Amino acid sequence: MDDQISSTTEDQKYLQQAGEELAPDEFIEEVSDFSDCKNFDMDDILDLAGGAKDAIERHRSEDQIMDIKNVKITNSRPEKEEAHAEAKAPSSQLWDLLYWRDVQKTACVFGATLSLLISLSLLSIISVCSYIALALLSVTICFRIYRGITDALQKTENTHPFKLYLDQDVTLPADVIYKHSDMLLKQTNATINELKRLFLVEDLTDSLKLAVLLWVLTYVGSVFNGLTLLIIGEVAAFTCPVLYEKHKTQIDHYYGLVNSHLQDVVKKIQAKIHGVKNKAE
């Protein structure tokens, strides 16, 4: 009898806990079967307490599942934002250089690359690389000797002037190598598939466009060599974006006129090609 009374009191505690933790609709649903009865026997009370237990456990498990889902969502959002920021960062830095956002940085990059290309057009690549490496080594050796002499005259501790740079880790991480190698592999495969499609004449119009482009390049190659084209391309890359930003309206207007004229010419050529095909059939 005492065991039954103690179990009854525990069941009443579960009933009270169910009323506190469950929503009103859930608690009413649990006790709706017994609401019309005036007298409860021991078995009815035990059944009601057991139902309340199950409802509490179900409610707690649902809350835990929702918490886990919320944690996963909140953790996945920063990872996606970081990946998007990493993918966007190199392109934004390149556009900042081309649009001269930082004049000093862009001037250094433009001057160094242009000087290198001009040097390669005048001298061999071996001579250019040797002169650049020799100049850099001469500067570092002279600075190292100068710092050693000044430290000896001032009787100060002789510290290496490039110690900060020597202690830096310049090894490339493996994940960066794998990332760029995967990108290079995708671009290479896409280029090979596109060349196969063009040279095996999957689409006659695209192959004719490539033939016209190659025919034009034969005349360009007879006038300019590869390095001259690279120099012209670099100058255009650092000047055309700025000019386009300043004269965007006029450039878009004339570009639309030229593009519409070219589309008309292409449509006429395609119509003639289809007419020749139909006659042959």
From TrEMBL:
Domain of life: Eukaryota
Lineage: Eukaryota, Metazoa, Chordata, Craniata, Vertebrata
Statement: the UniProt record of this protein carries the keyword Nuclease: no
Keywords: Endoplasmic reticulum, Membrane, Transmembrane, Transmembrane helix
Coiled-coil segments on the chain, per record: none
Extent of the signal sequence: none
Residue intervals of the Reticulon domain: 94-281
Annotated Gene Ontology cellular component terms: endoplasmic reticulum membrane; neuron projection; postsynaptic density
Primary site of residence: endoplasmic reticulum
UniProt subcellular location: Endoplasmic reticulum membrane
Provenance organism: Ictalurus punctatus
Transmembrane segments: 114-137, 210-232
Protein name: Reticulon
Bilayer topology term: Multi-pass membrane protein
